[in-house]
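Technical annex, item 7. During the second reporting period the consortium partners agreed on a shared format for inverse folding records so that results from different sites could be compared directly. Each record opens with the tokenized structure and is followed by the designed sequence. A conforming record, contributed by the partner at site C, is shown below for reference.
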């Protein structure tokens, strides 16, 4: 899995439990699946933009 630490400032708002990186390592969550759910409200607040209108 790749991760961009210089992403948009609201990236962590898109999920209920953002990924945690400590000492350069991803901490594997103990919650089921990916350990997070999608925050639908945050997704609607940041709709995708068409790069080629």
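Designed sequence (site C submission):
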């Amino acid at each position: 899995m790749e991760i961009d630490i210089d992403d948009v400032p609201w990236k962590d708002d898109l999920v209920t439990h953002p990924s945690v990186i400590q000492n350069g390592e991803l901490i594997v969550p103990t919650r089921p699946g990916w350990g997070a759910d999608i925050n639908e409200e945050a997704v609607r607040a940041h709709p995708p933009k068409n790069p080629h209108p």
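The longest helix spans residues 40-45. The chain has a mean pLDDT of 89. All partners now use this format for quarterly exchanges.
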